[in-house]
Write the structure tokens for this entry.
Amino acid sequence: MSIENLARENVRRLTPYQSARRLGGNGDVWLNANEFPQAPEYSLTLHTLNRYPECQPAQVIARYAAYAGVTPEQVLVSRGADEGIELLIRAFCEPGKDAILFCPPTYGMYAVSAETFGVERRIAQSTADWQLDVASIERQLDNVKLIYICSPNNPTGNLVNQDDLRRVLALARGRAVVAIDEAYIEFCPQASTVNWLADYPHLVILRTLSKAFALAGLRCGFTLANADVIQLLLKVIAPYPLSLPVADIAAQALSDAGIAQMRRNVAEVRENRRWLEEALNNLDGVDTVFASESNYLLVRFADSATVFKTLWDQGIILRDQNKQPGLAGCLRITIGNRYECERVITALQALSATTA
Ligand code: PMP
């Protein structure tokens, strides 16, 4: 008997998440993972590693709570927002019985995490303007324990209407947890639903240091929810989810100086996004540049396959979104620094000159 046959059936069938790093490429302009282009400088203040870390490092929790405007009891810290996505399934979904629901086109890890645990996946495809199809969500709610909604949505970049979010929260009350993925919320902080926690015992908000805080390599994310939800998640989290160096640097990133730096990062991204959007709109071969509230632009090209391959061969790595429902011809471009944005435009100009 092969080892393969010993594995759980759904693991044998599973296609793992195709993360940007797994997809590879040989680039010098990395615009496929929605990272921040510059690395902040941090040094460790702690130099001993013989002791286990705290499960939930108190200083990190206190600082994130102050930053987000919640109490420490409403915060859980984990190995990226991705671990928060998974913990929710572990705590709320019975394999083979319960389901999760999400709204494509959207972030891929909700589906992959559910599949890993053998939990059914329901799909309420977004409307043509990438808003929630609330009627479709309502029709499919039987046995759904968890609804994931990403706002700003990856990869489309738009915000989900707050009235629709409230309608879904009303439908789900007493039946399902609604997890709003705010991984990109620092780019449009006014849109956060964090102030709704008092109104909805079943609201969960996912956050991360990977985007505006420029710390994707640190692997640190947060789940915000009412205290009883956090207590449930603490039952299923690993005993020591954050290493001591991670907690050390996360606390620094959440100091006043760290938060001020994050706000400068956001201003720079917004300015470069405006520049890139305008330059793309002036190019032949660009059908649509979709409005974005985040650190990436979704762009529909007349010939996205050629654009993707030509830029790839020049070391400019974008993210192909063709396979997502409704996104034929679309590529996602992370907002890099100005030089990186210029490299994209120069390469596209050269391409349209050869194909004109
Ligand atoms: N949610 C969304 C919408 C994302 O785009 C990402 C990053 N790929 C994550 C969650 C996961 O973030 P983290 O790096 O904190 O695991």
About this structure: The chain has a mean pLDDT of 96. The two ends are 58 Å apart (CA to CA).
